[in-house]
Amino acid sequence: MLTVAVKQTWRALKIWPDAGRWKAALGIALPAAAIIALSGYLGGWVRFDPVGDIKSALIGAIVLFLFPALAEELVFRGVLLSWFATFSQRWGSWLSAILFMLWHPFQALTFGPPWSAIFLQPSFLFATFLLGIVLTHIRIVTQSLWPVVAIHWILALAWKLFFGGPFY
Question: H/E element holding 157?
Answer without folding.
Answer: helix 146-162
